[in-house]
Write a structure and sequence with these properties.
Layout: H1 5-8, H2 21-32, E1 39-43, H3 50-60, H4 76-83, E2 89-93, H5 100-109, E3 120-125, H6 132-143, E4 149-155, H7 163-166, E5 170-173, H8 179-193, E6 196-197, H9 199-209, H10 213-226, E7 229-230, H11 232-239, H12 245-255, H13 259-271, H14 276-295, H15 307-318, H16 322-338, H17 345-357, H18 373-392, H19 400-409, E8 411-412, E9 431-432, H20 436-446, H21 448-453, E10 458-462, E11 465-470, H22 474-478, H23 482-496, E12 501-506, H24 518-528
Parallel strand pairs: 1-4, 1-5, 2-3, 3-4, 6-7, 11-12
Antiparallel strand pairs: 8-12, 9-10, 10-11
Helix pairs in contact: 5-6, 8-9, 9-10, 9-11, 10-11, 12-13, 13-17, 14-15, 14-16, 16-17, 20-23
Length: 536
Amino acid sequence: MYTALYRKWRPLTFDDVVSQPHITTTLSRQIAEHKTAHAYLFTGSRGTGKTTCARIFAKAINCLNPAEGKPCLECEICKAADSGTLSDIIEIDAASNTGVDDIRELRDSTIYTPELCKYKVYIIDEVHMLSNQAFNALLKIMEEPPEHVKFILATTEVHKVPATIISRCQRFDFRRIRPEDIMARLMYIAGEEGFVLDEDAASLIARIADGAMRDALSLLDQCVAYSSHIDLSVVSDAAGIAGRDYLFDILEAVVDNDISKAISKTDELYSKSKDMTRLCDELLFQMRNLMLIKTVPDKTDLLACLESEVQRLKAIADKMSLDDILSRLDILQECSEAMQKCVSKRTEFEMTLVKLCTPRASAPVKASVSGDVSALVERINQLEREVARLKKYGVAVSSHKEDKPKREEMQETNTPLAKAEEAPMADNERKVCTQWEAIIERLTEVNPGCAGALRGSKAYTQGNYLLILVKNKFFLGLFKKPENAASLKEVAKEITGVSYSIRAKCDESLDETPARDPIAELIEKAKNADIPVDIN
């Protein structure tokens, strides 16, 4: 019976484990020095060797003739463990045994001593799948386990494991396997199996595997079914990356903002039963390639594509800015996440295509710290182009920077009675308001507080504007209240017979006589008076 390559070539000892020396060295040393813990937590992405190392560890601590903490592979314990018939090594799939009853059964079985081995080892794979009740039941036995029991928990999502469990384990983080290590392992296996594997084909498999040795061996298995001589074309056919013109057609439609073409191509693929989730992931992967081309153009070995596709990708990347690529990556990432729970995956993907093909200037800027900067930049560029176009046709355009001093210099009284437009301030057109003192005197009777704030001020008329210059900024704040502005306007109309629009500004250069402060005068008199003061 044929055995899959990833099962046939699964490492049997720590020396065979690829790219995890920081873990295998520590574990073998602990075993050699008899300083093993009662519980371990192995974390990392799929295919990096978590379960494999758990099995090797369980075998090594029970081996009859260990050498430097590594199993001998010759004794009856090692052979039974490799064949899967050793009852003292128990593997549990937490994805299938998530309930509290399953863990209670495990807990009850720990009281029995091992049949053949020194230790009974429980390997719980995908432990993050356990329910809260199951975790609580597991915690009870992990707090004070029998001396003959060891636990090895493996997970790809450590953030879902309760902190109470993690704190009772020695944690080991498995790294993604380096492409060069995967490539070397594939070339070795190909030589042992008797088929030809080209180096560039092995390199492409390693890049597609994305750090997972099991995925690389599974893909190699598929390639062997195509041909005994594995080259780039065989890998592209087996991996499903041959004939991917549809991906580049969609990318070109996106960069040209051609919604019709993108939707039509999607409809064509949908009619051929193309999975929309897979299509989104493929598009996301190609957008990543564009990002790499834009940022590290010399590192073409990082691209997971055929050599014939590189030039087409570069041509597309030349039409896009890095900000555009990053923005579209965000949109595709959001689509990939939304597809996990949406009803119509086709509709979700088509909505995403519309977003991708719509100019980013129309996109709202996000309110987060990591907001959509590219949308803002594009919006600014669009406004600058519009300003240039207006100036070309003789339309006067003033910038915010030019208007700002005027707005600070001349403030409106902020009432419904005042007009919104700026008052002209040319000196040769201004006339001194000869009735200003009379206005202040009458205002003293109507609104004493406002009149006091106008002491030492000057006023001018210009058309239907009454322009007031004051030294104290307090006046400007006071006249933002509608009732104060209204009273001044009514008094001015009563005295002059004209309904003025009132404008005001602060001029600190005015030689203003300080307004009389009764409290300050009283204090001053107290200082100068020869009056005995009782300080007791």
